[in-house]
Amino acid sequence: MSEEVDISVEFAGIRLANPVFTASGTSGYADELSDFMDVSSLGGFITKSITVNPRKGNATPRIVETDSGMLNAIGWANIGLDAFIEEKLAALEKLSCAVFVNIAGETINEYVAVAERLAGERAIAGLELNISCPNVEVGGISFGTDPEQVAEVTSAVKKVAGDKVLMVKLAPAVTNVSVIAQVAVDSGADALSLINTFTAMVIDIETRKPILANRTGGLSGPAIKPIAVYLVNKVYNEVTKSLGIPILGMGGIRTASDAIEFIIAGASAVAVGTASFIDPGCSVKIIDGIKEYCVSNNISNIKELVGSLEAEQNAAN
Amino acid sequence: MLEKSSAVKRGVFSATVCSNKQIRERFYRLVLEFSGAGAEAFAKIGAGQFAQLDLSDTALPPVETIPDDLADVAERKILLRRPFSFADVTTKGNKTSVDILYCVVGPATLRMTTLSARESVSVLGPLGNGFWVPDGKKTALLVSGGMGTGPLQHLAKILTADFPDINVIAFAGARSAEALPFERQLDEISQQLGFSLPEFAKYGVESLVATDDGSAGFAGPVTDCISEWLGSSKSAGKSMVIYSCGPEAMLARVAEIAREKNIDCQVSMERRMACGISLCQSCAVECKTAGSNDTFYKLCCEDGPVFDSAEVVF
Questions:
Q1: Domain-located, residue A69
Q2: Residue B179 CA neighbour count, 13 Å, CB half
Q3: Residue A299 domain-assigned?
């Protein structure tokens, strides 16, 4: 019966076998996951942030658990562009799912340098532009909160991205996320991913100091899911629906039901983040669960579900 | 030479609780049993390797039994797994059982106390690299602080079984006699004989106890105890190896003593970690290479948790 359900997705011109990605920064360079799942069974895979030069990352503690969530402040720890290309691309090229590279930088030139080098790599389907990281001193979220800078960095990267899909990852804590989303799309974004983590803090009341060495970190996990669903729905209604631009929805997804909420809200695909830390193979279960939901709800093509939120509130409540 | 043992067949396995015994006020010893693929994966793990336990669905103990200092944190819902190393690993037929020595310090270990026989627990592992035995060693000193004794008990078992030519001596430190995480109280006679801790004596391993307040064994930090012992030892040097696990300040001092005496030293590090499989990059340990001032981060989960003490920046 499930074979009759089509959960493949057309995502900014790329055909995905299913709508489930693993989110950047929660799934390494893919080889780390291979003991727990077949990474090729995903719809898409997104690498951790890649910068021009290698980065050590922040001092520890880099994480702290919160109620139904966690804060992280890793600080773009990565092996750098050259080592990424030399050591990681060959394995990524063997994956049959769509591979996106999350790119980051402290200056527009750094974003452009990474994008330019990766634009010619066959292993890569797209670039995810990280303009929403709350954990670095320079760059990151500062690019994603000011519409002018969003326009500048997005259009600069678009110019060198060649045929790669350009997906812009949005910060949630802005006055109006739709304004930023609109600017990104107007500047050349082929897709949007939202949301990144919320800047947050946990304090040790004995020492009266923040627990994280970076003072603040990005809040992720189930705690942020309802806000993420709302923001996806808002951007879908106000920006992307009329333009046919796909949204990769994320924020606290642990189960197929969570993923389906995002799809109903307007996401064409979803990404699993923090949940992979607890169950590194959970994305596979989520793919299966989406299929089962479609079967039991007589949905023959997942497209029918995207943005299918009813206008009226749930009468049962 | 015993090579670094690393996780080869890791996965998420279901383990069954055999027992969960309170050994002192805050200290427990949990025995889990694996069958099938889990038994195979955990059968040959090295001392110092670890696993991540999912305790998010484990029940809280009755409110009236929760210590006052944990009353607030008990309210917290936990999300992430928690890392534990093993005090013993035994195989019987096609089953493997592992002992976890733990101390109740927060919401997860508080829940852990309610695990009872036949309950199942999700275990992700085995993870990381354990202690290794360099060539040519004649003496191994196992130096622990508090709960750090766990993986060193497992190491004592492996060393005495597989390296009969190595003389093994355990040093166990804690703040006070009450804070020693061992099953039996120490009696004076066994202390004088030097086989004071049954956890080590059962492997024929001599053990010395140190308490900061002098309430048991050597009066003072375990690092002073080992310093004094090395001072009177004729064999200190290249034929010796120190294995250490405990609070980081203690490890730093042990590393310093080892450097001064030109003794190889391995330390088991601890960091806050989310995943244990290098996805989250949170458990960074600052390291350096000999002759360079440049530092870099290694991951406690994947590169450690056991490190050569000479490479760690304390």
A1: no
A2: 18
A3: yes
- Which pLDDT score, from 0 to 100, does residue A173 have? 87
What type of residue is A233? N
Q: What residues form DSSP beta bridges with B83?
A: B52
Inform me whether the pLDDT recorded for B184 exceeds 80.
no
The C-alpha atoms of residue B146 and residue B173 are separated, in whole angstroms, by 6
Structure tokens at B42: 């955990």
HSE (side-chain half, CA atoms, 13 Å) at B85? 29
Instruction: Answer yes or no: do A77 and B297 touch at CB < 8 A.
Output: yes
Half-sphere exposure (Cβ direction) of B244: Cα atoms closer than 13 Å: 30
Closest-CA residue to B265 (of B256, B274, B255, B273): B255
Positions in chain A short of pLDDT 70: 1-3, 134-141, 315-317
At residue B217, the pLDDT reads: 86
Residues B156 and B200 sit within 8 Å (Cβ to Cβ): yes
A279 touches chain B (CB under 8 A): yes
Interval B135-160 mean pLDDT: 96
Could you give all domains of chain B from N- to C-terminal order, each with its CATH number? Answer: 11-127 (2.40.30.10), 139-268 (3.40.50.80), 272-314 (no CATH)
Residue B141 vs residues B167, B190, B240: alpha-carbon distances, Å: 8, 19, 8
B contact test, residue of A62, A66, A135 with most B CBs within 10 A: A62
Instruction: Let me know: does A275 contact A253? Beta carbons within 8 Å.
Output: yes
The residue among B279, B251, B299 whose CA lies nearest residue B6 is B299
- Domain membership flag for residue A311: no
Q: Which residue of B has its CA nearest to A55?
A: B296
ipTM of this complex: 0.92
**pLDDT score of A206:** 93
pLDDT value of residue A71: 97
Question: What is the per-residue pLDDT for A1?
Answer: 46
Looking at residue A138, its pLDDT comes to: 65
pLDDT at B7 over 50: no
What is this structure's pTM? 0.93
Partner A contacted by B275 (CB < 8 A): yes
CB A202 within 8 A of CB A210: yes
User: Would you say A308 and A264 are in contact if contact means Cβ atoms under 8 Å apart?
Assistant: yes
Residue A239's CATH number? 3.20.20.70
| C-alpha A191, offset from chain centre | 11
Whether residue B135 is predicted with pLDDT greater than 70 in this model: the reply is yes
What's the pLDDT at B25?
Answer: 87
Residue A130's contacts (CB-CB under 8 Å, 6 or more residues apart) are A24, A49, A102, A103, A104, A140, A169, A196
Asked whether the predicted pLDDT for residue B193 surpasses 90, the reply is no
Query: Are B282 and A62 an interchain contact pair (Cβ–Cβ within 8 Å)?
Result: yes
Give B12's strand partners. Answer: B124
Give the tokens for residue A30.
């893919």
* Dist. CA B210–CA B172, nearest whole Å: 6
Total structural domains in chain A? 1
Q: Is A133 a catalytic residue?
A: yes
* Residue-range definition of the domain harbouring residue A262: 2-58+75-200+220-305
* Residue at A169 is within a domain: yes
- Helix (H) / strand (E) element for A225: namely helix A225-235
Residue of B nearest to A27 (CA): B279
- Å from B84 to nearest chain A CA? 15
Chain A residues 4-33 with a CB less than 8 Å from chain B? 25-28, 32-33
Task: Give the pLDDT band of residue B198 (cuts 50, 70, 90).
Answer: confident
